[in-house]
Amino acid sequence: MSSFKRKSSTNSELSYPGTRTAPGNISTAITSTGIPSLDDILGGGLPLSCLLLLLAPDHHSSYGDLVQRYFVAEGLSGGHRVIVVHPNPKEFMADVMWHPKSSSSTTDLEARDTKHEASEQKIKIAWRYESMKPFQTTVVSPSSSTGDYCHAFDLSNRIPEAVVHVAINSKQLTYVGIDADGLDQISIVDMLARLSSLIESSTPKSLLRISIPSLAAPEWGDLSNLQILWFLYSLRSLLRKHPYVCASISLAPQSSTDSWGGQGWLQKLGWASDAALSMVAFSANPSLSSIFPSHHGMVHIHSLPSPHTLSVPSDRFSTLRGLSSSGENNLAFKCTRKRLIFETLHLDLEGGVSERRTAPVTDNIDLNAFAGETGNLHQHLHQTQSLDTTAVASVDVQLEEDEAASKNIPIPVALEEVRQAKPKKKKTVAFQSDRPELYDF
Amino acid sequence: MLSPFNLPEGIVLLITDELNSPADFLLHRSFAEHVKSAKGAKNIVLSVSDSIARWKSIALKSNLNLAQYLASGSLEFVDVSSHIQVPTGRSDQPNLHSLFNIIQPLLEKSDHGLALVILDDISTLEWIGFSLLDITRFTRALRAACLQIGATLIIRHHIVTPGEPDDMFRYLLQICTYRLEVQPLSSGRSGTVSGEIALHSGPGTIVDGQKLIPRSLALQYKLTDNGPTFFEKGTSSGVL
């Protein structure tokens, strides 16, 4: 027998709808999370039989839930079976986003938007840079050519109730409630047994997604960190036995920080799951949200899936992380009206603020007040006692100015200067072709 | 054993790693080398957190067909998760006795020496609820059983609080002959360097000719699908 054998793929059963083979390894099948940029970070998508854990430590936002909803929506539109484990699954499902209403109108809108933007930012670029691609901070959204891999969703659209009903009736969508009766807390063992029986009962021909938004929320009772890790560990070994299942879990905000589970808690979570990411929202810290006004939070990567390889595929194939060329990029996320985007984080112009200012804001306000008030005072020079007292603080200053003016300082000239110093409302930094000066602020 | 470090056989090797620099590759590498060098010797993999599928596909990269070794009995793969009970936290604490009872006969079967036992993740056992006492008893028994037949024992422990050794780590450090410390770069993830490895000796080890690697001269590596490539500090492809 010849020792040369053609390597034939024995994994013919891998071809579930809505999956594709991972880049770099044909034995790994991956499926989309519903967010193209998150797929990119994971190295193309979430591999089957893997567990994605999302931590969103901010109490006042629910980005973890949002990612779960994308995960569910992608499953439903891809024809996968979906299990939702939630205290109130109906409420959760009611807020799931859905496809854009009619693709033509949205594309029209988007096209108009981009056209509008283009006309607004008509700037001249030095010739040697003109042929370069525009600077991109995220990966492109899926086009229609990607088929049923990653669908386009629109956050302004809700899933139609009919779709949910049909999915429930056809057993495509299964709710698992969290029924902690009375003071007894939910038994992790029972929950695992229920999930296990649901997985066993599903037909292996269809892909199964398990979504658990807010694990360890108050409805779960007082879960200790041992129990959470035991749950993750057992669920993961359950997934390993069933190569057609993948799971996405968000941990409740209070359990998503080191201060809750003790030192090294996030690292433990990273070890206990295949992929673990933190979405740290800026809303908890006003100074951060003012530094990064165009983003809603930072993304920290704890671990990434490598179900069949030594090295993490994402290191080589993720555009956003950019490890293939040099060090890792800083990542952030933003939630626009239409979608949630993960993108690279860059400092803005002048290293920090989005607007470049020529003078501090407070000065401008004073000047305005000064201009208006001095005009008045000039008219009523001898009625200084009946001052317009809308701005008492500025009045004191102006009296002094006025006295100075009475000592033969030409006021009109000063006023002219002040009026010229009036700032324009909108300030942008751009090189404009129709203006001779270099920069227009 | 473990080519760039050339460790002797029959030792207890502790491998510590961190989340950003998992040391899976050292386990797989030592297994592959052992299988190739000592033909017919026994290999026991106690897998707490990894699946057999991953072991198989990684072994394929070094031209090893695990199914063949499993069939011939030279590899015993013990999936620990299916042998342990739920830690309930009540008085009837589960212990790892039952697990050891499964491993012991496997060790006794390997009549000729040069066996290799890999425990791929001891920290997870602690994290999911086994008490430190349970785990130390289990480790002590496992170590004794390995020493009796002259087998090499490799234990991997995850460090989650670098700089502040936990109790488990202190215990493991006492019983190990050598310790391989795998650390990520302190400057963050990089595309050209995956991490660095230092080699320390255990407290009771008599070092004779074994070249240790202090942290300051740690060996750097870059991980690819086919295994790690090692290089001295400052000589990565990104630098040169």
TrEMBL record, chain A:
Chain residue ranges for the region called Disordered: 1-27
**Location of the protein in the cell:** Cytoplasm; Nucleus
What top-level branch of life does the organism fall under?
Eukaryota
Pathway assignment: tRNA modification; 5-methoxycarbonylmethyl-2-thiouridine-tRNA biosynthesis
Listed A to Z, the keywords are:
Cytoplasm, Nucleus, tRNA processing
The answer to whether the entry has keyword Cytoplasm is yes
Listed InterPro entries: Elongator_complex_protein_4, P-loop_NTPase
Q: Which GO terms describe its biological process?
A: tRNA wobble uridine modification
**What family is reported?**
Belongs to the ELP4 family.
Q: What is this protein called?
A: Elongator complex protein 4
Q: What organism does the record attribute this protein to?
A: Crucibulum laeve
UniProtKB/TrEMBL annotation, chain B:
Q: Which domain of life is it from?
A: Eukaryota
Please name the pathway: tRNA modification; 5-methoxycarbonylmethyl-2-thiouridine-tRNA biosynthesis
One Gene Ontology term, aspect cellular component: elongator holoenzyme complex
InterPro entries, alphabetized: ELP6, P-loop_NTPase
The record's annotation in CDD domains points to:
Elp6
| One record GO biological process | tRNA wobble uridine modification
Which SUPFAM superfamilies does the record match to this protein? P-loop containing nucleoside triphosphate hydrolases
The family this protein is said to belong to: Belongs to the ELP6 family.
Query: What is this protein called in UniProt?
Result: Elongator complex protein 5
Q: What is this organism's lineage?
A: Eukaryota, Fungi, Dikarya, Basidiomycota, Agaricomycotina
